[in-house]
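Dear Dr. H.,

I hope your travels went smoothly. While you were away I took the liberty of generating a structure for the chain from your last submission, since the lab meeting agenda had it listed for discussion. I wanted you to have the full record in hand beforehand rather than looking at slides cold. The sequence, exactly as received, is reproduced here:
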Amino acid sequence: MERVMQGRTLLCAQWVIGHSDGRHVVHENGVVAIEGTDVLHVGASFDGPVARRIDYGAAVISPGFIDLDALSDLDTTILGYDNGPAWKKGRVWPESYVKRGPYEMYTSEELAFQKHHAFAHLIRNGITTALPIASLFYRAWGETVAEFDAAAAAAEELGLRVYLGPAYRSGGQVTDEWGNIRAVFDEARGLQGLAEAADFAARIDGIAGGRIRAMFAPDRIETCTETLLRRTSDIADEMGAPVRQHCSQSPVELRLVREQHGCAPIEWLHQIDALHPNWLLPHGTQATETEFDLIAGAGASLVHCPLVSARHGGMLKSFPKARARGITIGLGTDTHPADMILNLQIGMMTARLADGMEAIRSEDMFDAATLGGAAALKRPDLGRLAPGAKADITVTDLSRTLQTPDPVQTLMTSASGRDVRDVFIDGRRVMADGVIPGIDETADAARAQAQFDGLIAKYPGRTVGHPPVSEIFTPSYERAAP
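The corresponding predicted structure, in token form, is as follows:
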């Protein structure tokens, strides 16, 4: 990774998305001047001296994307794309597996590699600030401090801005052979996970020149007890750290929370006084009108993950109505690929399916990926290109696509994460011409695939009835004889 470039750097492109008077503005044939870690100037021209000038031509220079639910492992949800129901396909622990004793399905070295590989993937997609998320289905219980020490080292090496904290939980989901899913709890184990997460948070918050900050990640709401969430809320409030709590995502979650507490998930957070302005809530696809009102009243933020929801037949109902309530909405990728541009596009489509063509415009969704994430994190220095803001910048090449008269609309209609060319974080050029220094993309992809294949081979041991892999993941078409 390049160090902060000495002297001023001037970036030029056909389009620059700057920020003025509280909102994004577009400069045609604009420039961005960087000095140190910050943006110095955005506009049509810059008259001051510069040490270097980079002219991107047919491209858009924009604030880097903020991913509030950023994939940080090898995404097992893609295995369920055509293979369901989840309880029957290894996505819920069977009783026989729990009786044997859940175990780690990756080595510590594999977990460390995954974080490094995932963080590089985020940068390739123009994501400059990330709050990592990973599945606990293949873990013994929660995430470990050791793997997050490795994650901090990877983020510092690559230059990614991250909020880190190992996920912990009081319980897990278990199914019998007929698909009856229940929650099982070990509260002491969950509280130990919180204590370890709090120690980690105090140790790493603010390292790497402030690029690495702490967060708290209690896992899914149906596997957390009141004590765990209350203590999380108190510790995070004292630190000023965000808390991310997955909720209102699935019918199974809704049923379990209602059985446990007699109400809906966000209603329960409100009842136990855990729902505060520093809480980030993916996904909200099952939330009621009452729950949206509670989110707005608490000043909490909604994390919209359009791609992963749409893949499984769900969508947020609705993005425009949530915004109209005054809810801060940020975006998360939450699945492979971590393509924020694709999520913007799917978010637009599903919002219009829910509320009609006129309900949302491109800039509304782009705001969520930039300004919304910054507001959720209480970071007015992120998500915008303006003097004094952090120089977190994404450059997206538009030379190979059909451009509309507007750069944001072009991103929505014609671009993808593969068009991201350069990325700057904290004034550092962490990716240039699609290349991240020190990364062998081909070798890393092969290593990731080998690890993923190894995990798939272990699925029979954690699937109801222990069928062979060929029955768990059925092919699209019959395999032809060799």
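Two observations you may find useful: The chain has two domains: 1-63+385-439, 65-382. DSSP finds 15 helices and 21 strands in the chain.

With kind regards,
E. W.
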